[in-house]
Design brief:
Elements lengths: L10 H24 L7 H12 L4 H13 L6 H29 L7 H6 L11 H20 L4 H20 L20 H15 L1 H4 L4 H29 L12 H20 L1 H6 L1 H9 L1 H18 L2 H6 L3 H23 L10
Helix pairs in contact: 1-2, 1-3, 1-11, 1-13, 1-14, 1-16, 2-10, 3-8, 3-11, 4-6, 6-8, 7-8, 10-11, 14-16
């Protein structure tokens, strides 16, 4: 299981990125039903809860991949900023404006377009666009991370990141009524800097785990897969238990500071990379397709929400989720959203006037 291609294109990261993209779409599809706890059959709700619980690691895995690919680069500050920030500013401006108009006229939001755009530097115009703010912050802080990481070993970096994630755990525990206000939590001020606090450990850990990923074998990969399953299953069972006990949906275990989400994110990332190494030869045969889909990942993330909402409201989505069993409806809607979004982004990237928004 040795396919070491350092300093060259690594299809394994593309595979992990694509899986994470699918899981993000799965979150937004299943959440339609998850929030309807008590209003839909319990079996339907548990199917959606299962999908959502096993998908929560997706966003953190994106940060792990970004750290692995960006923090190891030797490009200077000017070169880094010119390459990275220029690629994110245009999408940020376009999609903030697009979803402001979308929310106003398609979703009938009350906030005016002027008010939303005026406050765009503080908050996202649509719920999934927080990721753009996070990316910008990580790009800004990457040179600082690089400077620090030059002076510590990767083993030390792993240890620091583990402590970092443990330090955030009280923020998760504080969400439970019996502990609320009794723990020394890190106060969130809801500024863009909070993205560094909440997700920075994954970004650095992605870099620190690079060497370890190249030492994985089938046994270790299987162990990490089992740990990932157990962690996600605890999220699933815990969410079901808390919701039944309170009589309303309780999504506390879904939150990023949750220790179970942290465990499944890191072990899930390692498992997916190890699994991609096991099926490496198969991936190589589909290298062209995989690289193209992966190349579209940011654009798919940005556009998939409006695609999903159209599929649900104007086409078959709502019927699949509510009239047909979710065990069929959720996978079909995930697949349809992925295919439509990827197709739009792929061909959009070929059009000179709009390729930069993806």
């Amino acid at each position: 299981m040795k396919h070491d291609i350092k300093n060259t294109y690594d299809i394994r990261y593309d595979f992990v990125r694509i899986v994470s993209m699918i899981l993000i779409i799965a979150i937004h599809v299943s959440s339609t039903l998850v929030v309807d706890f008590g209003e839909i059959p319990m079996m339907d709700w548990n199917i959606a809860n299962f999908v959502d619980s096993f998908s929560r690691m997706a966003v953190n895995i994106f940060f792990l991949i970004s750290g692995a690919l960006l923090l190891a680069k030797d490009d200077g500050i000017v070169s880094f900023y010119s390459k990275r920030l220029s690629k994110i500013i245009i999408p940020f401006i376009f999609w903030t404006t697009f979803y402001t108009v979308w929310g106003k006229y398609y979703k009938q939001y009350e906030m005016s377009i002027k008010e939303t755009l005026k406050g765009a530097y503080k908050f996202q115009s649509y719920y999934h666009l927080w990721f753009l703010y996070a990316i910008i912050m990580f790009y800004l802080f990457t040179p600082l991370f690089k400077m620090i990481l030059k002076h510590i070993s990767k083993k030390w970096a792993v240890g620091i990141c583990i402590l970092w994630l443990i330090a955030l755990t009280p923020n998760f525990l504080d969400k439970f009524s019996m502990l609320e206000g009794k723990l020394p939590i890190i106060k969130w001020s809801y500024t863009n800097f909070d993205y560094i606090v909440e997700y920075g450990a994954y970004y650095v850990l992605g870099y620190a785990l690079v060497d370890y990923l190249h030492k994985l074998d089938k046994r270790k990969t299987t162990i990490f897969g089992i740990i990932t399953f157990i962690s996600n299953f605890i999220i699933f069972i815990g969410t079901s238990f808390l919701s039944i006990k309170s009589g309303v949906f309780q999504g506390k275990l879904y939150y990023s500071p949750s220790i179970f989400v942290a465990i499944s994110s890191v072990t899930g990332y390692i498992f997916l990379y190890g699994f991609s190494d096991i099926i490496y030869e198969r991936l190589e045969k589909r290298k062209n397709l995989i690289s193209k889909v992966s190349y579209c990942s940011l654009g798919v993330y940005l556009i998939h929400i409006c695609v999903l909402e159209v599929l649900k409201n104007q086409f078959f989505g709502e019927k699949l989720l509510y009239s047909v069993t979710p065990i069929i409806g959720i996978p079909i809607l995930i697949a349809a959203t992925l295919v439509v979004s990827t197709t739009i982004v792929y061909f959009g990237k070929k059009v000179p006037l709009i390729k930069h928004i993806f």
